[in-house]
Amino acid sequence: MEYFDTIKRHDYEQISIIQNQKAKLFAVDVIHDTTRGPAVGGTRFMKYPNEEEAIRDALKLSRGMTYKSAAAGLDCGGGKTVIMEMDGMDRTLALKTLGRYIEHLQGRRYTGRDLGVSTEDIDFMRTETRWVADETPAGVGDLSEATAFGVYQGIKACLAEAYGNDSLKGRSISVQGVGEVGYWVVKYAVENGAKVTISDIHPKAIEKTAKAFPVTVVKPEEIYGVNGDVFSPCAIGGIICSETIPKFRCRIIAGSANNVLATEEDGIALFQRGILYAPDYVINSGALIQWWYRQKTYEVKNKRDPREAICDLYPVIRNILKESKEKKLAPAMVADRYAERQLKKEKTYVDFNWGNLK
């Protein structure tokens, strides 16, 4: 019943379970909203304690993609796919099976990489469907770097709000998770004069980053208490909670992780502590923006240079923080209201022409 209540409360369009016993595949695909256009959102591959947690994650992430698309002003909606990692899985067959499912939606759903999914995985899916992002230079390009560039814009916007100056020079930034996106966030921070502290549960990611940049490394459990200007969560979501909030010794939280607030109340708790928070689905939308303007499947009105469009996140976040201060509301609440204003008041699915495909 919990899921039915969630579906009705947040007006989800479709939830699908994709199963293949031979491949040991259990996947959940959620289309939250196609009011503005196709449901866009990546495919996540990770271990879940049970099927219920996988469904819950897909529901939350897909809705976040709708708000992300709306906040970025793009003509697309939100969706998400999660695959439960199982012992003994036939990964190739699982991905191809999922690709066939995506293909049968005929453009209503468009996916790409998320946590645990490699470019090789996407190549397997592409043998079955055209509705997956091509991250080659000839396609949409490196989406991890695009996400990091958006995070960089968000950090600057927060610094401007907190200190009246958006320069990273001399600022201290702690990055949690230095894999795909986090590595690029570190690169932007270091190249712009910041002092950077990092942590990651994966030794190889730490080794690669520490070899490339002058960073300080701390244990994963120590990253929350690092004294500095910015904490940048670039790993998994749900890490800002009642347990971690008292540990923070920073002025700003701005990173690429999705659903970083465990609950809405945690966003309010940050606000009450005077910690500026850049809403996750706004600051991490660089990949979506770059994909939208570089993909070749849908006809895009008002074509723009993706880099220029990602830079627009700076004023969006500044305005969210300004309204947060004026109305004494947590930034996450202000961001939701902003995104909802971009959505049509009524769902009119017939307005989007699914035949408008290249």
Summarize the structure.
The protein has helices at residues 2-9, 51-71, 91-104, 119-126, 143-163, 180-191, 203-212, 264-272, 280-283, 286-294, 306-311, 313-327, 331-342, and strands at 14-20, 25-33, 39-40, 43-46, 77-84, 109-110, 172-176, 195-199, 215-217, 230-233, 252-253, 276-277. By secondary structure, it is α/β, with parallel strands linked by helices. The termini are far apart.
- pLDDT averaged over residues: 91
What is the end-to-end distance? 41 Å
Mass-distribution shape: globular
- Please give the largest β-sheet: 6 strands, mixed
Task: List the main descriptive attributes of the protein structure presented here.
disordered C terminus, 358 residues, alpha/beta, 13 helices, 6-stranded mixed beta sheet, 42% helix, 6-stranded parallel beta sheet, single chain
